[in-house]
Amino acid sequence: MIEAVGLTKRYGAKTAVHNLSFQVRPGTVTGFLGPNGSGKSTTMRMILGLDAPTSGRATIGGRPFRQLPNAPRQVGALLDAKAVHGGRSARQHLLCLAQLSGIPARRVDEVLGVVGLQDVAKRRSKGFSLGMGQRLGIAAALLGDPQVLLFDEPVNGLDPEGILWVRNLMKQLAAEGRTVFVSSHLMSEMALTAEHLIVIGRGQLMADMSVKDFISANSADFARVRTPDSEPEQREKLTSTLAEAGGQVVAEKDGALRVSGLPLPRISDLAHEADIRLWELSPHQASLEEAYMQLTQGAVDYRSTVDQRAGLQEAPAGYGPQGGVPQGYAVPGYTPGQPNPYTQQAAGAAPGQGYPPPAQGHPYGAEPYGAPHPYGQQPQAPAPMPPSAPAPAPADPATPHPEDAR
């Protein structure tokens, strides 16, 4: 079991982790979530003894990591998949780790097979892709067959097959009674992998509960209701009926209604009593991502802003519906709300073809230099040869080259 009690870490005037306390129990995949800069990696480093806490303590099985006898056989970790000597092969890297911990060499070949790197075991790791590096890091964590495992972004760079493999591996390790602590930013993957969540923001604990309880506590379920699109009066009637019954009704852009505060059977009964036909009545449960965003929206340190130059981008020719130009683009000679002048069909062109007609041959038409260019930019005529630099006369084949006469 991993336990943190009053864990605090300061770097000068900056507090990365503040008074953090939690437990990671065996037999369960525990997800470790938080925005960028929230202190997740710092917390894992303190658990593994790589950083000393300013105050508080982090223990594994009741002991600090540095006091564990032969720690690699008890704890495995993947914090940085790039922490590998690039000149060594995958097998040499694992063999070095095994010899330092008294692990037999046959275990190296076993974990290479577990992570699927047996065919590239003799290749230098500097030529590995990001996903292959992640697999090698996972192999190093499994090398000592430990009971406690920590993974920081283990699916980073993996393909869909690799992500599925990691998910099943985590579940299998937890089912064997091991303690599995996984940090990730992929909410959809955490929803499928983790059973318990620890969420921190700006170095402080925000949630410590099961995935199911976390979603219920930080989101509101609602029902999606739709009436016939050809009968808008039915939609208005249903809105007023549900509001009178105590429901909260919000209109969505596609014409459906989002209803909260009323169970689905009650919505169905109210619509039946009001003689309103329903095309859709479906429940909606919030996802882990929605619940996470709801909880951590006030603890995000790095927020993106609107690009102020977005409206200065030139639209590609023919972009937009019916030859129009999408909102946010600026095109020379174009008036918003009018068809795009660069996609209007030219005279003589076949239907569906733009400018110029195929019969003109040259991609820009037969206009001479100096005529308006159809795409808004006029090509420049080639500069004439200066009179003081006459063209060289062709060489006489019979005259030997000076270099050949030597």
TrEMBL record:
Keyword Aminoacyl-tRNA synthetase included in the entry's annotation: no
Region spans: Disordered: 314-406
UniProt keywords, alphabetically: ATP-binding, Nucleotide-binding, Transport
InterPro entries attached to this UniProt entry: AAA+_ATPase, ABC_transporter-like_ATP-bd, P-loop_NTPase
Domain ABC transporter intervals: 2-227
Pfam families: ABC_tran
Chain intervals with Pro residues compositional bias: 381-400
Annotated Low complexity bias: 341-353, 361-380
Top-rank taxon: Bacteria
Alphabetical list of PANTHER family matching this protein: ABC TRANSPORTER, ATP-BINDING PROTEIN (PTHR43335:SF4)
UniProt-recorded name of the protein: ABC transporter ATP-binding protein
Organism expressing this protein natively: Streptomyces halobius
